[in-house]
Amino acid sequence: MVKREIFDFANQHKSALIFAAGFATAVVGKKILESKVVKDTATDCVAGVMALKQDAEDRVSEIKEDAEAQLDEDEEEKKLIEVEDEEEEKPKKSSKKSKKSKK
Known about the structure:
By secondary structure, the chain is mainly alpha-helical. Helices cover 96% and strands 0% of the residues. It contains three helices and no strands. It has helices at 2-12, 14-34, 36-102. The longest helix is centred in the C-terminal third of the chain and has 67 residues, at 36-102.
């Protein structure tokens, strides 16, 4: 019977109970957010995120440097190949001339 009376009371004063529950939640939430434990935890989380960001930036710069070094090596290799090709072509041309001059 008592349960039925409580249910009827809650049903009649639904808005007041919702307001009271919201107020209680706000008070408890404020106390929780102001606690030292929450503050320390939030500080640790922010520090961790900042450390991850710095680590990611360092790795990106390393990858960038490696890529630039690889491009420089590829360009030098292309230059060497071009020089070798030019050196191979020159004797062939001069050997043809020399054969014609001998005839």
